[in-house]
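Narrative of activities, Objective 1.

The group set out to show that a structural description can be obtained from nothing but a protein's sequence at a throughput compatible with the screening campaign. Below is one input-output pair from the validation batch, recorded exactly as produced.
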Amino acid sequence: MNELTERLLAEGYTKENHPDYVRWYDSMREFEYMPGYISKTVWEAPCGVQRKGEFTYGYMSYAGIDWRVENNNYNFHCPYYKKECKFFHPLLRDMKIGAKCSWHMTNKPYNYDNSAEKIEDERQTLTQKNLEKKFGHPSMIHCMCCHINEDTCEPYFKFDPWDCIRFTQNGCDNKICHCTGKERDLTLGNIYYDVKTTSEYRQGFVIEPVIRIEKGMKLFDDRKTITDLEMYLKTYPDAPIRKEEGKRKHSVPLFFAEYHGQKYELEILNVRIEKRESRDLFQDLADVREGIEVTHASDIIKANKQAKKERRVKAAEERYKRNWKLWVKTGDELYRIRLLKAGITEGELKEAREPAKIEPQKYEQMSMF
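Output recorded for this entry:
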């Protein structure tokens, strides 16, 4: 129960009779401030800076305390973005993320000159000046690698190919890289690789190696620009093996290899960047001659799609037969609507319900012996 609820209950209020600035939250069985009331309040930090109240969309529970407006201790963020401060709350000082100041509601009149809003406006103005000085306009550039220094409000570049890869669906679309100043190849492609698994077939005293190679595996679901793929593969060369190990983390072969001593090896081969998957037929034949089971990921995907399509067609046919049979038998409106959606005309439906075509219901004499 929060402090607001304890105070109102002590004053004799109930969930049916309470002040207009609060509401009863039945799920938690406590009072909470109305959003409109919070926006009219003034909050003060331990350093004396004020700020306007705002609806918080929840609160944080840490060190056994609920840091919320109803407890008069909400941890609004520091407008100075300080990493160390003597006014940090002792219980919040060691937190890795989140605000570390405990703000309190005050009856003092709001003073813009001593407010977080003024500090934030000044930071915004300084940031825009620094952006205009560096780029010629007071706004961020179209680049995921550009960031704002929280201490100096100056823009800086921190290059990470992963940011470029996820900038848009197809990666970064800038023709010139803002970090390197070099021209970028915007041709779309993907990182392909082959997965080789080695296990053993055991039957009595017979032990034979089982080698499989699945070729044409894609690292990304969507195609990305060639430049981003090259830089990503150069920065994260182990990305394919990490992806495959993650997919097989809870697989049966890996379980038996880890806990029952069975052989299971995973290897990544032939990592390459291509516009579309290429196949080496001669290499496939050579692998097959050596007793290796060779499959292609694209063939498996295509076969799965075809099998799914066939299952849907078969299911649609079965639904049609079932609805037609029930329509002829019962004449229910539900089955008429379903058959009309399937393309059957009203005339065909009426014809099917003619008395001569409806088979009389057959009864069987039941016997006790």
